[in-house]
Amino acid sequence: MFKKAVIGFNCNVDLIVSGVRVVEALNTTCSEGKDQETLESLADLHQTFAHFFQRGAAAERYMSSEDQFNLLVAESEASTRSHHHIGGNAALMADRIAANFPSTEVYLVGPIGPRSQALIHPSVKRTNSTRILKDELHVILEYKQGEILGDWVAPSSSRFITSHDHFSGSMVVMEMFFKAIAQFRPDLVIITGVHLLEFQSKEMRQEKMRLIKRNLLQINPKTPIHLELGSLADEVFSTDVINKILPYVDSLGINEQELTFLSHIANGPHMEEYPVQAGTVHVHKVVEMLHWLLKTYGRDPTGQNPNKAGYRLSRIHFHCLTYHIMVSSGTDWSNLAAGLAAGARIAGRLSCNIGANTIDSELLEIRTAANFVLDKKMEKNYQFEAHNPIASWMREDVLFVFTPVLVCRLPSKTVGIDDAISATGLLYSQFYRLGRPTHW
């Protein structure tokens, strides 16, 4: 079990509303859904929301106009069912670890305003140097399976996030994050919020990417670094992330939208799967993509490849609505099946708001087939067994562990589930790297 964790660097307050109700109140029209990388107006928001709504897919896009974003916030806060919750991947993961793993000391570095200060779990340590006077707000447009927007019906429950952040990707917050790692000396580092740099100028982005990479290379190889990826849209920026950051972390948390997008832009397998349509990607295709990602950007266990000097990636935790997969190479990580099972268990419970000691099978269901192909190359098939649902196999020198997920039939919550899955899976996993600590 990890004793100390430093987590950064995005923190905000989530304003959670009924997506259909708010979008319909915006007085905008939309004849077809279209994905915009950046939202410049409420009409862009309507189009992009419709694009993902009809696919039942989660997404996040930045709103470049502060005035338009403020109009959206005003409309959202006027909604009868709006709720404020702690938000931002870093804050959500810190909150989850503090609540469920009290023996782990958690240090959160991110822009913390008065409302987020009150909402975060009291045992989470935080720094005064990144306090802000007014909270960053993210509007979470949630929708349920079967809801109707114009001519479209949502095939599954999900959410669309939009924001106009000032501080989460700021240089000051990043510098304080890496400073906290040096001071606090954790045995686990979690970095997330990198996706928020996507909306900054090219020069600013590159400068911050250099800062992140330079500091990652300073972290002791015996201290694992986990990267929780976020929703990406810009191909140039995303290519930078997979080349300059991904190889220099030990662990990655990723969902089906992010995985298919990375494969799409980096000439990986099954590029045609992006964007993900309603439902989920076939397991054997995800297995191909995960194997490619780890083999291309992962650590070389033999240490013989000069092109991979300093590469650390050796664990990937993939999650989508109906199944999760853990992938690992080398000997650094252990207890992966327990981490995978714990992450899968918390997904349905959080979505349905079921207590830890309650088993209400009426609310949960398996949505994968009873048998299907796991890995075409290895001719590995899956046969569901209720008392032993986890399957594991080797593909070359890579370990795969698969589990179906008990899906909530009528979710009361969709936001923050990915972060809870990753944080839980990570805290159950164990990391031990042999050899003397060296700095690359």
Fraction of residues in helix: 25-40%
Strand content: 15-25%
Q: What would the CATH topology of the largest domain be?
A: UDP-N-acetylmuramoyl-L-alanine:D-glutamate ligase
Provide the residue-averaged pLDDT: 93
Specify the CATH homologous superfamily of the largest domain. Ribokinase
* Derived structural class: alpha/beta
Largest sheet strand order? 7-6-1-12-13-14-15-16-22-21
**Rg computed from alpha carbons, rounded to a whole number of angstroms:** 21 Å
Assembly type of the chains comes to single chain
Largest sheet: 10 strands, mixed
Looking at the overall shape, the CATH architecture of the largest domain is: 3-Layer(aba) Sandwich
Shape: globular
- CATH top level of the largest domain is Alpha Beta
